[in-house]
Amino acid sequence: MKKCILTILACILCLSIQAQTLLGAWENTKSTVDGQQLKNVVVFSEGHQVSTWFNANTGAFVSTNGGGWSLNGNLITETVEFDSKTPSRVGSQVSFEIELSENALQIKGMDTVWNRIDEGGPGNLAGAWLMSGRKRNGEFQNRNTDQPRKTMKILSGTRFQWIAYNTETQQFMATGGGTYTTIDGKYTENIEFFSRDNSRVGASLQFDFKVKDGDWHHSGFSSKGDPLYEVWSLRNQ
Predict the structure, then answer these.
(1) Distances in Å between the alpha carbon of 12 and those of 17, 77, 125?
(2) Sequence-ordered list of residues with C-beta below 8 angstroms from that of 76, at least 6 positions apart, any chain
(3) Model confidence over 20-76: pLDDT tens digits?
(4) Mean pLDDT of the residues in the chain
(5) pLDDT of the residue at 3
(6) Which runs of E-coded beta strand occur in 56-203?
(7) 3-class DSSP state for residue 4?
(8) Check whether domain 127-234 has CATH 1.10.3210.10, yes or no
């Protein structure tokens, strides 16, 4: 009888976790390294996630990692596609148990708690996107999204992050991210970290955007002032 009750309780716990959703953005602001207060932001989209650390006060980039993920009960399994700090992890899988409530996420056995930022709203572009085309010198160029060299952008309802990496060579190239809005056909990025240039932190960039035939068309000017037209396609694997 006791064993039966424990089994039922375990099933209820699994159903409770599955009823909650990891989708959206989470943050922890209580980590410190060498006296620096760090912010760790984690974004979960359907099938893909990214976790990034940066200085909470200056925006100085520290590290990022991410890739695919799946959840079975309270066990999350991540497949590493990029890791700026430990590239040798690319291609590996890691599994751990989580404790999930409506507004808090915790890895079982750890004290760190991530608080929910959003559940995928109100922005209109939540998901994991791969750059699939761009205009250069007025000429449109398609880009093969199946190749190892990828530029991925993961968005929740309020957070964005792009990452350039190569799964074959395990190389991490660059990343940047922060908050975003989509209002009246305008997509606005507010940069909170940029791995190549800390001076970009605090900048806001506005672009025209539309979703056409499932693809995100994105046009305007880059942070360097160069004309920009990009097409992004939702990841399906």
Answers:
(1) 9, 21, 33
(2) 22, 69, 70, 95, 96, 97, 98
(3) 799 999 999 988 877 889 999 999 999 999 999 999 999 999 999 999 999 999 999
(4) 91
(5) 41
(6) 61-72, 75-83, 93-100, 104-107, 113-118, 127-136, 139-142, 149-155, 159-166, 171-183, 186-194
(7) helix
(8) no
* DSSP at 74: T
CA quadruple 82, 128, 120, 173: dihedral sign:
positive
pLDDT exceeds cutoff 80 at 11: no
Q: Does domain 22-118 have CATH number 2.40.128.280?
A: yes
3-class SS shares of the chain: helix, strand, coil, % to 5: 10, 60, 30
Domains of the chain by residue range: 22-118, 127-234
- Per residue in 69-113, pLDDT (tens digit) is 999 999 999 999 999 999 999 999 999 999 999 999 999 999 999
Other beta carbons less than 10 A from residue 16's beta carbon:
12
Token representation of residue 107:
């890895």
Do 22-118 and 127-234 show the same overall fold? yes
State how far the alpha carbon of 54 is from the alpha carbons of 41, 116, 162, 192, in Å.
Answer: 9, 18, 15, 9
Contact 162, 129 (CB under 8 A): no
Can you tell me the distance from the alpha carbon of 100 to that of 140, in angstroms, rounded to the nearest whole number? Answer: 44
Q: What distance in Å separates the CA atoms of residue 147 and residue 203, rounded to the nearest whole number?
A: 31
Phi-psi region of 220 (alpha: psi -120 to 50; beta: other; left: phi over 0): left
pTM for the model stands at 0.89
